[in-house]
């Protein structure tokens, strides 16, 4: 992209190592927080960890958020409890939005100044494109917030006994499935 006659460097191999480290940190922190949300769903449903993983692994953050809020409303003892959950989930949403900004937008380097910019694009109702200067420290601070809110949600879950149950029965062995496997077994 050329802006004001500057050709920005979008080659990911040019990104300074401290940015790559910060991006790795934010991705890892977000994965951990999303895992905690999966566990929260399992705890609210009263199912075991394996069932929770099977149910929630491919859910997006917005779906996890909506499911937790809905399940919590069904069984919450009072509005104060719901307010606490909503507050934690609002913080998690804001933190995950920062992860999305860091990981879903290209980074570009100004070759004249070596400043790093986030090339932000959105098309939700209208198109908006911008280059915003960003520091590795900002990304690391966002990663810390993602981690912190995840830990606060986990502490909340523990304090309320809302962790998924331990699995007492062994997993069934994996089997071949699908039309070809059914045919081989003599089933339509």
List the helices and strands and how they pair.
Elements: E1 2-3, E2 6-7, H1 17-45, H2 49-56, H3 61-75, H4 79-104, E3 106-109, E4 116-123, E5 127-133, H5 136-160, H6 179-184
Antiparallel strand pairs: 1-2, 3-4, 4-5
The geometry reads as globular
Lateral arrangement of strands in the main beta sheet: 3-4-5
Residue fraction in strands: 5-15%
Structural class: alpha+beta
Helix content: 55-70%
Please state the average pLDDT score.
Answer: 94
Cα end-to-end separation: 56 Å
Radius of gyration: 22 Å
**How many β-strands, per DSSP?**
5
Q: Helix and strand string, N-terminal first?
A: EEHHHHEEEHH
Describe the structure.
The protein has 188 residues and is of the alpha+beta class. It has one domain (2-184). It contains six helices and five strands, in the order ββααααβββαα. The chain has helices spanning 17-45, 49-56, 61-75, 79-104, 136-160, 179-184; strands spanning 2-3, 6-7, 106-109, 116-123, 127-133. The strands form two sheets. Strands 3-4-5 form a three-stranded antiparallel β-sheet, covered by helices on one side. β4 and β5 (127-133) form a beta hairpin. α1 crosses α2. The longest helix is centred in the N-terminal third of the chain and has 29 residues, at 17-45. The chain is globular, with a radius of gyration of 22 Å. It starts with a strand and ends with a helix. The mean pLDDT is 94.
């Amino acid at each position: 992209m050329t802006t004001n006659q500057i050709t920005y460097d979008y080659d990911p191999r040019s990104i300074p190592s401290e940015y790559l480290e910060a991006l790795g940190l934010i991705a890892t922190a977000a994965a951990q927080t999303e895992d905690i949300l999966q566990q929260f769903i399992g705890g609210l449903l009263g199912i075991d960890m394996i069932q929770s993983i099977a149910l929630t692994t491919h859910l997006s953050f917005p779906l996890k958020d909506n499911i937790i809020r809905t399940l919590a409303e069904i069984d919450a003892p009072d509005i104060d409890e719901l307010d606490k959950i909503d507050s934690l989930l609002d913080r998690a949403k804001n933190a995950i939005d920062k992860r999305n900004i860091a990981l879903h937008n290209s980074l570009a380097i100004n070759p004249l100044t070596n400043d790093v910019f986030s090339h932000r694009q959105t098309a939700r109702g209208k198109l908006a494109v911008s280059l915003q200067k960003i520091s590795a420290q900002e990304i690391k601070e966002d990663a810390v917030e993602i981690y912190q809110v995840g830990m606060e949600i986990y502490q909340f879950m523990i304090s309320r006994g809302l962790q998924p149950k331990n699995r007492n029965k062994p997993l069934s062995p994996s089997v071949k499935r699908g039309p070809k496997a059914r045919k081989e077994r003599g089933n339509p």
